[in-house]
Amino acid sequence: MIAPVSSIHDTKGLLQTLPTLALDVPDYVYFAADNARCGAAEFYVKEGDRVLLGQLIGMRDGRFFKQPIHSSVSGTVEGFEEHYHRSGKKVKFLRIKNDHKDEWDPSIKDRSDEEIAKLTRADFAKILEANAMVGLGGSSFPTYVKFNNDKKIEVILINAIECEPYITADIRLMMEELEKVIVGITYLQIAFECKKVLICIKKKHRELIRMYQEYLRRYENSGIEVCPVGNFYPQGWEIAMIKSALGIDVATGHLPSEYGIANFNVSTVWGIYEAVKHNRPVYERRISVTGDGIKYPSNFIVRLGTPLAALLEKCGGYTEPDKDKVFILGGPMMGASLPSDDCIITKTVTSVLVFNHEAKEEAPCIRCGSCVYSCPTGLEPKQIMDAVKAFDKPRIKALNPLKCIECGLCSYVCTSHIRVTDYIRRAKMFAKTK
Ligand code: SF4
Ligand code: SF4
Q1: Centre of ligand 2 from the C-alpha of residue 372, in Å
Q2: First to last CA, the chain
Q3: Residue 237 domain-assigned?
Q4: What is the number of structural domains in the chain?
Q5: Same domain, yes or no, for 289 and 306?
Q6: Which helix (H) or strand (E) holds 97?
Q7: What CATH number is associated with residue 190?
Q8: I want to staple 184 with a disulfide (CB 3.0 to 4.6 A). Which of 19, 38, 269, 426 is the partner?
Q9: How many other C-beta atoms are found inside a 10 Å radius of the C-beta of residue 66?
Q10: Which ligand has the shortest distance to the CA of 383?
């Protein structure tokens, strides 16, 4: 077993050198009946029904898109119970008892390479929609939507940047699933009839860059290249990545596709490979579980619906069990905090961070300007915060908070420990109202 680690750099540096662990599939898995953002799910199964791995068991009516729900185990439906959702609210979850047989649903069948070569972009969209593929980098945006158009795509960017501190699951995926990532990229080339692909990796990951460059020698003239990009945060923000890789400024309110660019997170590419080649929905994913609050930070392959408690146990439990903990789903900059560890892993969870709570009192703003200098979207967080405090709606709207990508930098750099990003979030809500 590895030694407990505490510093931000130790955790990230160490974890990216260690293999991903496959977590034992738990006895029970859970699927949210209500994700607290969209409407309630309609389940097609009832208590006592037997379900198969990969079986479609329900449908959630998203505000804009339907979201199919698939079982991540074979077993028996047992009913409902409440747990925390990543929204921070307690919601009802369907409980399935795992029979540990992993019996696949008959719809899970491989496609031959010849079949895949003949698929159109519309075919890809149908496959990804049926398999409930979403952005696995944490965006949870339905992937099929990116395929559901006939826009000319000149270049595909693969976001392998993983720029948030602590998280290393994508880097390990890149190392451990290299062939699937490259084959997944060739599927994107087929779908978009686009040869040029740039895999964007931070310059500091020299070994990973070398590994991919070396491997790509066997894909000669494929059009796939590695593109080293800057080591800064938020380099993984798609607008910053496009600027670094292609020198193109995507104007506010415009989409990369309007510039002939399609971009995909590297975990999403892996998911696309699984959906297209094996017709498998996302039933498991890789996540980092780390932070100074747990003994043995690790990367895991986890079945969807696994309770967080099972992961924490595998991490050796808490470093200081008597101290209050801060739980964050996602990265420390853009993640969502949770009131407890009673939460369930869903396909949008990229990482779980557990910290020993250190109370830092907010001090008055000293007008240092750090939040303004560090904002990647050119906003004035201090001014927006003042406008929110004054309930000055016209001023809030004039300061254009909707440009904010919630990167968290303004809070991170604030020497007065003011949670500036929380004010910007409130400003965004104000700006959306009349
Ligand atoms: S979170 Fe703060 S720093 Fe980041 S984009 Fe929004 S205002 Fe700018
Ligand atoms: S970083 Fe903090 S202290 Fe400095 S101007 Fe912004 S809000 Fe004020």
Answers
A1: 8
A2: 56
A3: yes
A4: 3
A5: yes
A6: strand 90-98
A7: 3.40.50.11540
A8: 269
A9: 12
A10: 2
If asked whether residues 235 and 375 sit together in one domain, one would say no
Which pTM was predicted?
0.90
Residue 371 Cα to ligand 2 middle (Å): 6
- List the residue whose alpha carbon is closest to atom 1 of ligand 2: 414
Pairing of strands 56-61, 197-202: unpaired
Which of these three, 356, 381, 404, is where a domain ends?
A: 356
Asked if residue 299 lies in contact with residue 168, where contact means CB atoms within 8 angstroms, the answer is yes
Same domain, 316 and 269: no
Q: How far is the CA of 335 from the centre of ligand 2 (A)?
A: 21
In a domain, 334, yes or no: yes
Residues 237 and 91 in one domain: no
| Residue whose CA lies nearest to ligand 1 atom number 3 | 375
Exposed (0-12), middle (13-18) or buried (19+): which is 316, by Cβ within 10 Å?
A: middle
CA of residue 386 to ligand 1 center, whole Å? 15
Of 365, 373, 375, the residue with max ligand 2 atoms within 8 A of its CB, to mutate for a pocket test, comes to 365
Reduced to 3 states, what is the DSSP secondary structure of residue 68?
strand
Atom of ligand 2 nearest to the CA of 416: 3
Tokens of 138: 């944490």
Which domain covers residue 138, as residue numbers? 113-278
Domain boundary among 356, 385, 416: 356
77 domain residue, yes or no: yes
Same-domain status, 28 and 74: yes
Residue nearest to atom 2 of ligand 1 (CA): 410
Together in a domain, 259 and 205: yes
Q: What is the pLDDT along the chain (434 residues), one digit of tens a residue?
A: 333 344 444 467 778 888 999 999 999 999 998 765 566 789 999 999 999 999 999 998 776 778 899 999 999 999 999 998 877 788 899 999 999 999 999 999 999 999 999 999 999 999 999 999 999 987 788 999 999 989 999 999 999 998 888 899 999 999 999 999 999 999 999 999 999 999 999 999 999 999 999 999 999 899 999 999 999 889 888 999 999 999 999 998 899 999 999 999 999 999 999 999 999 999 999 999 999 999 999 999 999 999 999 999 999 999 999 989 989 988 888 888 888 899 999 998 999 999 998 777 899 999 999 999 999 999 999 999 999 999 999 999 999 999 998 888 999 899 999 999 999 999 999 998 87
Ligand 2 binding pocket, CB closer than 6 Å: 365-371, 382, 413-416, 418, 420
**Are both 266 and 118 inside the same structural domain?**
yes
- Do 270 and 292 belong to one domain? no
Q: Which atom of ligand 1 is nearest to the CA of 381?
A: 7
* 2 belongs to a structural domain: no
Question: Which residue shows structure tokens 């910053």?
Answer: 240
Rounded CA separation 328/86 (Å):
9
Q: How far is the CA of 407 from the centre of ligand 2 (A)?
A: 16
